[in-house]
Amino acid sequence: MTTSAAAGDAGPATGTHWLNHDELAAWLANSAIMISLPAALDARMQREADLTFFEYMVLSVLSEEPERTLQMSDLARRTSASLSRLSHVVGRLEKRELLRRARIPGSGRRTVAILTEAGHQVVVAAAPGHVTAVREYLIDELGPHDLAALRRIGTAVAAAIDRDRQLGP
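The structure assignment produced for this chain is given below.
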């Protein structure tokens, strides 16, 4: 439940500051984007490039790095994934020889993911379709002011999430 009869008021029993009509409408519109946009990008990526959207993002992030290499913990952060999820997906990509893992010498269990040449070719081939989908589903539907607002909103939300992550479990 996201609202109450006294929308925007704190409920006496719960202390919840319920969403008012405008806040609820904004939240529901944003929820639709959070759910439907990744699903649409995923379906299209699978259809056009035989990759999931998340696999594409992993390969894409690596393709932008010097030497196409990144520590797994940094790759997890950059793709907004848990290490467990990332490890599972990296394992699938390794089996396809699109990337490989290597341990970092020294103490600890530090590992890097390295994009292979085959992986680089796959991500380069998939990139035009991904950009086209992003344009069709989002960018071309917005004007310059909307894009600026979307950037501000995304930055603010990411900062709030990062603050919460820093507080820990």
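Interim note for the steering committee: Strands lie at 69-71, 99-103, 111-115. Helices lie at 21-49, 53-63, 72-78, 83-95, 117-137, 144-167.
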